[in-house]
Specification:
- The protein has a domain at 343-539: q2cbj1_9rhob like domain (Jelly Rolls, Sandwich), CATH 2.60.120.
- Helix 11 (179-191) packs antiparallel against helix 12, helix 14 (229-242) packs antiparallel against helix 15 (247-260) and helix 17 runs antiparallel to helix 18.
- Helices cover 55% and strands 12% of the residues.
- It starts with 7 loop residues before the first helix and ends in an 8-residue tail after the last strand.
- It is built from 23 helices and ten strands.
- Strands 1, 2, 3, 4, 5, 6, 7, 8, 9 and 10 form a ten-stranded antiparallel β-sheet that branches.
- Strand 2 (376-377) and strand 3 (384-389) form a beta hairpin.
- By secondary structure, it is α+β, with helices and mostly antiparallel strands.
- It is globular and about 85 Å long.
Amino acid sequence: MAKQRPRKTDIKLARVRDALNEGRPRDALALARHVLAARKRDAAVLNLAGVATFQCGDREEARALLEEAKARAPKDAEIRMNLANVVAATGDVDAALESYEAAHDLASGYAEPAYNAGVLLAKHGRHPEATGWFRQAMTRDPEHPAAAIGCAEALRAAGNLSAAKEELEAWIALHMNDPIAHTNLAAVLSAMGDDAAARDAGERAAEIDPGLAAAHFNIGVAQQSLGDHNAALKRYRRTLALEPGHAAAALNLGEVYTTLGDTAEAARAYRRALDIDPGFAKAAINLADMKLAADDPEAALRVVDDFLARNPSHPAALAFKAFALRDAGREAEAVNLDDPQRFIMQRRLEPPEGFKDTDGFNEALAAHLLDHPTLTPSPTAHATRKGRHSGELLTPPLGPMAAFRDQVEAGFRAYKRKFAGEPAHPYLDACPADAAISVWGVVMDEDGHQVPHIHPSAWLSGVYYVEVPDSVCDDDPARSGWIEFGRPPEDIHAAHDPHVAYFRPEPGLMLLFPSHFYHRTVPLKGRTRRISIAFDIVPALKSRAAD
């Protein structure tokens, strides 16, 4: 029996796929349009035409073509996933997820829809959900390296460092020569404070792939933390040689030069970081702080004002500007930015529905936090010292956190009402119209405290006190366990005496404050325990930085 000749249309579609695979979307689109002229109802042709159109930059037309393809072949998983990719690029996260889920359900052996859903969620800061999707992808394809690495990275970003470490170590046990896994493990180990192990993991990654810039960067981070500054310099230089656009390597290079006393090279490195990323606040602040250290606050203000002109209302820049204004003797302007009496709101929470009283609500919150799998002893990536710090708490199962989220939303609404109708202000004008909430918990033991810090990814931050020991009291002159606002961290060279304000924690008290307000906890005295739950109001589609 003679072989059946392939249809000309199939040959042409194969050519369209070849053009797409070879990175020639315009050629693919021209071919697809030619076929489509004769076969307007063919879902396969519509699918490839949609992909080619998308790669040529026309998202709206691509979506229309893929929607038509879906209507004609509703059970085609590839069409559903391609549609999800286009919808995701438009920023419609929920619609994209719905399409990824449909593709996932239609093809039981297809891992890519779950993987792409994980990538989308991680991009938008929804790391716990991303973890679930990456795991779905790995269930279908246990050898999916990008899903394995993505899962560990999502766990790290959600604050679950121990789980991220376990995921990476399990993957490495089966794939010992995966350099990405080794270098990501180095980053996790650094965040956990195990710098020697982080250095070793990074060196293993660099041994496997000497051209992997991230490996050299992570080795440098570990060496810098270990005090081996000259070795760190070499690693950061190597990172930049391999990846000239690595802004963090330029920043860290500047910090090492600062430590070694080479201010000219430090300034050059910070400027390089800003050239790479004009929105890199830490580089601008470090450059401005060099002017403060040289007793030139007006020059520091010029640097930070130049940064604010490009990045209005950035929390880190507003915080630094207040310190520089005071060093320049411009107190009224500083107070306009960081007046605790004006900008810090206190709220007493009423027991939410389903809880008899506030004590019962607090007991439920404490139990939920103390049993949370992300609760980690003093991770170096956060401000907590001699205590435990959780990852994201707004993850299933929510338990009492659902009611707590409602309380945070009510507080946010009340805060906005307080300032409704105010004149133009660099902080208030940045109030997000669309916001997300991030929540985490802190458990402090004897001598537990938090170093001065801000929440640079958020607009409004807050803390709620769940459990406060009797030693935290009004008649303690040391104010053990109190929260303090206004003290700069040690690496900011403000010359003026800090203007500080204290608040005594009490169970049931919520404080809301601008995210650019530096704050710390006075070390807790006595063999006692203090539990608080903190939160950020984050502009939508931005993830919270580690705090």
